Amino acid sequence: MLNTLRRLTNLTLVEHALLLQLTALSLGLRIALITRPLPRLISLLSRTAISPLLSQIPLFHTRCTVDRLIQLIDLATSMSHRDGRCLPRSLLLYWLLCARRESVELCLGVSLNMTMLEGHAWVERGGIVVGDRLSFTNRYTPFLRLSA
After folding, report:
1. Which residues does 121 contact at the CB level (< 8 Å), separation at least 6?
2. Using the 8-state DSSP alphabet, how is residue 57 labeled?
3. What does DSSP assign to residue 141?
4. Which of 88, 90, 137 is nearest to 110 (CA)?
5. Cβ-contact 66, 15 below 8 angstroms
6. Bond from prior residue into 58 cis (ω within 30 degrees of 0)
7. CA distance 10 to 145
8. Is the pLDDT assigned to residue 131 strictly greater than 90?
9. What is the pTM (predicted TM-score) of this model?
10. Do 120 and 99 form a contact (C-beta atoms < 8 A)?
């Protein structure tokens, strides 16, 4: 908690505004993931990302570098999702990178860890993992790759 507060105090005014929007969008994704099938949700995100007007939402996202945007998405999803935040986090990143006209894929993978089945979601750009640790994503076997 102290680390999160420290991270919040180091944000600029523009980053605070962006974080607030990302947190609201993350909460909206939580509802959308419950009410919509994932392929339809991804299709909707892809369409809004290429719309001239909707691609500007959240406001100010184009003012941040991709690395800073990833940090803000991490912070937003950590505040709005306790467990299983990799999918909303990856969906937000996928959407915003598509809005920047980058060619990205949303990847879903599974791993059989001991006796438990685990899943993970991440984003790749040109086959390179974005915003996640390669050492972590390598533990998962991709079963679905979705691109815009």
Report:
1. 86, 87, 89, 90, 91, 106, 107, 108, 109
2. P
3. E
4. 137
5. no
6. yes
7. 35
8. yes
9. 0.91
10. no
CA distances 73 to 16, 107, 117, 140, 143, Å, are 12, 17, 26, 22, 24
Identify whether the C-beta of residue 147 lies closer than 8 Å to the C-beta of residue 124. Answer: no
Two tokens at 133? 């640790």
Question: Which two structure tokens, joined as six digits, stand for 78?
Answer: 């950590």
Q: What is the mean pLDDT of residues 22-40?
A: 93
Q: How confident is the model at residue 4 (pLDDT cuts 50, 70, 90)?
A: low
How does pLDDT run across 74-100, given as a tens digit for each residue?
999 988 887 789 999 999 999 999 999
DSSP state of 123: E
Q: Is 64 left (phi over 0), alpha (psi -120 to 50) or beta?
A: beta
Question: Is 11:79 a contact under the CB 8 Å cutoff?
Answer: no
Closest CA to 136 of 113, 114, 116, 115: 113
Q: Report the DSSP beta bridge partners of residue 146.
A: 106
Do 140 and 110 touch, CB atoms closer than 8 A? yes
Calculate helix-pair angle for 2-9, 66-80, nearest 10 degrees.
Answer: 140
Which residues are within 8 A (CB) of 7 and not within 5 positions of it... i.e. 6 or more apart?
71, 75
